[in-house]
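My main concern about presentation is that the manuscript never shows what a single data entry looks like. The format is easy to grasp once an entry is in front of the reader. For illustration, here is how one protein appears when written out as sequence plus structure tokens:
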Amino acid sequence: MFVRPRIIPVLLIDDRDLIKTINFKERTYLGDPVNAVKIFNRKGIDELAILDIGATSRHREPDFEILKDIAAEAFMPLAYGGGITTVEQARELAKIGYEKVVINTQLIRNPELVKRIVEVLGSQSVVASIDAKLVHGKYMCAIHDGQEIVKISPKTLAKQAEELGAGEIFINSVDRDGMMSGYDLKLVKNIVNSVNIPVTACGGAAGIEDLKEVLHKGHAHAAAGGSMFVYYGKLKAVLITAPTEEDYYSYNIFKE
């Protein structure tokens, strides 16, 4: 049976602003996240991921006020990550309209939390987010918005996340973030071959060809991206956009 891969724009927010990063560091202000969601509604995207990149490092809980505004405007499935430290927060996110919660730092700091959220919301609603960075030629995991390197490989952490009950792995390359130089296929394949749950690849997408490559050659189950959905052209003019369904099929991105 043919299962169409998902294409997922990722919106980064910080202090209620829509931003974009490069290597998790350099930040560019893009505008209002709610307006971006309204535009994506018209584009008919598969799913939208909202990541608050300042929540964990600043010890903030999810900003439920802005998240409610986003959910009220969204006509597509939503995933949210950032500052989730309790089961109650995960419940509240589900209550206001988020189908998936994305766990990153707590996957390492408090793995028992992942197990408890799975028990409450189900595996299908829990995404294990892994930020990977090359350190002296080896892939290591980064937490706290990429600020802290942890001595554990993404492959090992992915396996642990699966054992905890997570229903999906979101693998993001810190080195490719915002570079628009293509996905790290070696990293993606490494994770895909390590687990039996779906893997979403992120980090480096510049256009449809990159999506096609990570799905066909990287064997990812879904392709996520930030820059290609918020920038246009070599000068990176801010433009919230997404390819059409016809574009995807004309590039033969979905193979049966």
Remarks:
- The domain at 6-250 is CATH 3.20.20.70 (TIM Barrel).
- The chain has ten helices and 14 strands.
- The chain has one domain: 6-250.
- Residues 33-43 form the longest helix (11 residues).
